[in-house]
Design goal:
The complex is a heterodimer of chains A (309) and B (305).
Chain A lengths: L6 H8 L12 H14 L8 H15 L4 H9 L4 H12 L10 H21 L4 E7 L5 H13 L8 E8 L2 H9 L1 E2 L1 H4 L4 H7 E3 L5 E3 L1 H4 L3 E4 L5 H4 L5 E6 L8 H14 E9 L13 E5 L2 E5 L12
Parallel strand pairs in A: 1-2, 1-7, 2-6, 7-8
Antiparallel strand pairs in A: 3-5, 4-5, 8-10, 9-10
Helix pairs in contact in A: 2-4, 3-5, 4-5
Chain B lengths: L2 H17 L6 H8 L8 H10 L1 H12 L11 H8 L1 H13 L12 H21 L5 H10 L2 H9 L1 H14 L3 H8 L4 H11 L4 H9 L6 H4 L1 H14 L19 H9 L8 H22 L2 H8 L2
Helix pairs in contact in B: 1-12, 2-6, 3-5, 4-5, 6-8, 7-8, 7-15, 7-17, 8-13, 8-15, 9-10, 9-12, 10-11, 12-13, 13-15, 15-16
Chain lengths: 309, 305
């Protein structure tokens, strides 16, 4: 999904056919906003409506549509409405990020979170871990996590197996994630050793994830607002959902977070984006501070090992 | 800490004045710190600051730093007026503390120590304002002084304390836990004694003394709780003692948080994740200020005059 700090770049690239200043108050945009909200839970408040307008502008250019009212028809009454809605959602949820963007999260996993979870699971003889990147965008986050897990395979995770599920609503993003071809921007924080071990040269100054790395991840399209799908994500140890919920309004956010809570095993952790907070969204999770990062913890019936002090 | 050790430490701290390299203004400054805020005279403060060229220069730098509003003050008097008497008073003590221990006795990197102390001061003050604690300036001072014991331990038990620090860094463990093992007391306890020896208020002394001793928090009062929470926050935000501690901290479940919410219900309306983000945002400024004001390399030159 979209990463907030890259948005201005995306807008700059958009070159909308419809001037942003011309008709931001057009009631059709408000209707499109409500439509998108109803389907995806992504809500554009008055201050963020310009983002929606710029995303619509790209689709309108592609379709040769000039008025928001006409575009609304494409989304609601025309025969192509299902496809068009999906295409617009793809525009709204586009984003760029890079691998190993938050090393502090990986440190917290390695030093505190995983040792704690391993100890508890080892006790019941269950040597399998489940991770989920919810809103994985173009796959940089799950690729990072997959490399991290492979690096720990013979150390911390010796004798353990894992599932790594990565989902997103955006078809284009998922396609990129599955292909695993990345340019210098996505690889800017990936060191030479990681590149050598887990990537092949894909030409054009790009690298492609090798089969070993790809085999670690399972990609799927999932709408976080789709309750019927959300209830099936069970038995998770750690969920990553970074800079995804910022596009949700309070009600939808609360619902998604409640699903996350139910989907996690007791003692599991939820990572959100750096600037995100669950304050007044949900109080079942406990905020835990680690060096340079924070995560939300689903309390375990009995407190685990060296975790919270 | 047993009774013998306690009285031995107390005696040693009394002798600290003679072996330390504290600037001449320390004693008059301490006397001024005991006065109620309304009794502090501008002229007296300006005189104290101006007495020592190096301290006057640092004071100006601090007043001009972005942390304190990036004012363009050129005279000591305008710096003092701009910062406010209470703030200058706390600041001066910080600047004096920097020279309380001889250069070769520092165990913790001085930069790390000042980053930690100053950030803890600022965060304690911010948190105090959030919860509507009536004396935020006192909270600042409590944060600034909470680790005075680290200096005491560096001077009085240099080798043993060096060992504590080495082990704590290697084991990524909290320093006070290792101090307890090796020295038989923590920097909290020795810091508290120094505060008492200097005649600082009981609240300030308790804040230093209790920030690692959870069982004492309910009786120590809100300042100690505030200092404990901001100390933990700093240590989880690269503003600790210069090494990484491996732990996860549930601040909302901490005894200090629980104790505070009883007296200050406003704490419940504080978005801790957002608060932490604000700290991340000010980190660069804190580090910049400390490096320009307390930075040892820069301090060394004027201090020799």
């Amino acid at each position: 999904m979209t990463k907030d700090d890259t948005m201005p770049i995306e807008i700059a690239k958009a070159k909308p056919a419809v001037s942003l200043e011309s008709n931001p108050g057009d009631p059709a945009y408000v209707k499109i906003r409500d439509l998108i909200y109803g389907i995806s839970g992504i809500y554009h408040s008055a201050e963020k409506l310009y983002l929606l307008i710029s995303r619509c502008a790209r689709r309108m250019t592609a379709l040769g549509v000039t008025s928001p009212a006409e575009y609304l028809e494409h989304l609601t009454t025309r025969g192509n409405r299902t496809t068009e809605l999906r295409l617009l959602l793809n525009e709204i949820t586009i984003g760029e990020t890079y691998m190993f963007r938050h090393p502090a999260q990986l440190d917290a996993l390695r030093n505190v979170i995983l040792p704690e979870i391993l100890e508890r699971k080892d006790y019941v003889g269950l040597k399998r871990l489940r991770f989920w990147c919810a809103g994985c965008s173009t796959g940089e986050e799950p690729h990072t996590l997959a490399m991290f897990l492979l690096e720990e395979k013979d150390k911390l995770l010796a004798g353990w197996t894992w599932d790594l599920l990565a989902t997103d609503l955006n078809d284009n993003s998922l396609q990129t994630a599955r292909a695993g071809v990345y340019g210098e921007y996505a690889l800017r924080n990936t060191n030479a050793e990681m590149r050598r071990k887990y990537f092949n040269d894909a030409g054009d100054k790009k690298l492609q994830a090798n089969d070993l790395l790809k085999a670690q991840m399972h990609f799927d399209r999932l709408n976080l607002s789709d309750d019927s799908k959300m209830v099936f994500q069970k038995g998770l140890d750690v969920i990553f959902c970074c800079n995804v919920l910022i596009y949700f309004d309070l009600v939808s956010k609360r619902r998604v977070v409640q699903h996350f809570y139910a989907d996690l095993l007791p003692g599991g952790y939820l990572f959100l984006g750096h600037a995100e907070s669950l304050f007044q969204v949900d109080d079942s999770f406990r905020l835990v501070h680690f060096t340079g990062t924070t995560a939300y913890w689903k309390p375990a019936a009995a407190p685990a090992g060296g975790g919270k002090k | 800490m047993n009774v013998e050790l306690r009285s031995q430490l107390r005696t040693q701290i009394k002798q600290l004045d003679s072996i330390s390299t504290a600037p001449a203004i320390l004693q008059p400054l301490l006397a001024m710190l005991r006065l109620p805020p309304d009794d502090i005279k501008v002229e007296k403060v300006v005189e104290l600051v101006s007495y020592d060229g190096a301290i006057a220069a640092q004071c100006l730098r601090l007043a001009n730093s972005p942390l304190f509003g990036r004012r363009e003050t050129e005279t000591v008097r305008s710096a003092v007026m701009a910062l406010g008497l209470e703030r200058v008073r706390s600041m001066l003590l910080g600047l004096c503390m920097n020279r309380v221990i001889p250069r070769d006795k520092w165990v913790i990197e001085p930069e790390a120590f000042w980053r930690h102390s100053l950030s803890c001061a600022l965060i304690t003050q911010r948190m105090a304002q959030k919860i509507e604690y009536p004396e935020p300036e006192k909270a600042y001072l409590a944060g600034l002084l909470h680790d005075l014991g680290l200096l005491v331990n560096s001077v009085l038990y240099t080798e043993e304390f060096r060992e504590c620090f080495r082990r704590a860094s290697e084991e990524h463990a909290p320093l006070h836990v290792i101090e307890e093992e090796v020295l038989g007391f923590t920097h909290g306890e020795s810091g508290q004694m120094l505060c008492e020896h200097w005649g600082l208020s009981k609240e300030l002394a308790d804040a230093a003394g209790c920030h690692h001793h959870v069982n004492l928090l309910p009786t120590a009062g809100p300042l100690a709780c505030l200092v404990r929470l901001s100390d933990l926050l700093c240590r989880m935000r690269y503003l600790g003692y210069g090494y990484e501690e491996i732990m996860g901290i549930d601040l909302g479940g901490d005894a200090a948080w629980q104790t505070l919410t009883g007296t200050y219900p406003a704490l419940k309306t504080m978005d801790l994740a957002r608060f932490t983000l604000d700290i991340d945002g000010s980190m660069e400024e804190i580090v910049g200020t400390v490096d320009s004001v307390f930075g040892v390399k820069r301090i060394a030159a004027p201090a020799a005059t």
